[in-house]
Amino acid sequence: MTRPRALVVVAAAAAVLTAMNLSVWLAGASPARVLALMFAGTLGSSYGFAQSLAKATPLLWTGAAVALALRARLFNIGAEGQCLAGVLAAAVVGAALPAGTPSLLAVPCCLLAAASGGAALGGLAGWLRGRLGTNEVLSTLMLNGLMAVGVTWLYGGPLRDGAQVHTRDVVAGARLPMAGAALRAFRGSGLNASFLLGLVALAAMGWYLDRTRGGLRIRALGSSSGAAAALGIDPLRTTVRAMALSGALAGLAASHLVLGVKGYAEHGLGAGVGFTGIAVALLGGGKPLGIALAAVLFGLLAQGSLAVNAVVPSDALVVVQAATLIAVAVVGAGRAVAR
Predict the structure, then answer these.
(1) Which residues have C-beta within 8 Å of that of residue 147, sequence separation ≥ 6?
(2) Which of 97, 124, 286, 301 could form a Cys-Cys staple with 67, CB 3.0–4.6 A?
(3) Check: CATH 3.40.50 for 30-311?
(4) pLDDT of 281-301, one tens digit each?
(5) Rounded to an integer, what distance in angstroms lies between the CA atom of residue 87 and that of residue 253?
């Protein structure tokens, strides 16, 4: 790293720390005490660390979803709705399976349903962009709203489980293993096998984009739609493929939310993880390792906000997230200038 770039990075880190201290101070608390509580509630205990990873897990999926679409120069802000579609599909299929269905069959069926739900919504936005020229930002925003309204009605109406305002439980075989079952230190946390699946998906996404013909078509479309067409690449098909794959990744966040933590779907489940996934993808630079680290960072901040909730409002740490994103933008601009 050259000296100008190093100075930009140091200045950005200092700005994030300053923003955090200022927001905590304005909330009437001691920054040193808040930092100590955050550390104790996250990295300072096995349970806190496991909970941080649990909160990072759905962000692995939605961050990967947004990053994949960006490689095709498509801004998929519909990961929120695609996640909700995946949650709905996984919960419905998981509850419809016969009791006693083995995990080797139940889990793949639910994962396929979750991916299909997200892919259908993402593919629709891709088709609207490729066929009709509809801006994907607008179409995915509208689809987010439609999904939010739709699942709220379904969970409180046709799919309601008696007196409970949520769907029926998925069959036992559809549940993913919890980390607490293997490691006593993680007992009681929400960390489950979806975290490992998310890491595998990130690695697979990187391999697909960099090593396969399908990935080459997506990258070519992102470089120049005109050049892609000149190379014989069908822009419509490639746009639909990119958005469908992106939606599938977002839908697979249901592996954590439904198959891991809850065992059913309810109103509000998955809310916010799609929009936070945009921040994760941008912070991670669209790279698998960067996305994983960014997701863990946001997981630590989310868990840390709970640890300091008695001292400062949890919303105070939203300032830190915003400052982090601004710092990333500044670092990127600084690197461009340094070149």
Answers:
(1) 80, 81, 82, 84, 85, 121
(2) 286
(3) no
(4) 988 888 999 899 989 988 988
(5) 8
Burial-class residue 311 by CB neighbours within 10 Å (0-12, 13-18, 19+): middle
Q: What is the dihedral of CA 69, 70, 73, 77, to 10 degrees?
A: 70
Question: Which range is least confidently modeled, 72-86, 129-143, 181-195, 295-309?
Answer: 295-309
pTM (global) more than 0.70: yes
| Ranges of each domain in the chain | 30-311
CA distance linking residue 73 with residue 246, whole number of Å = 12
Taking only the tens place, the pLDDT of each residue in 182-233 is: 888 899 899 999 999 999 999 999 999 999 999 989 998 888 767 777 778 8
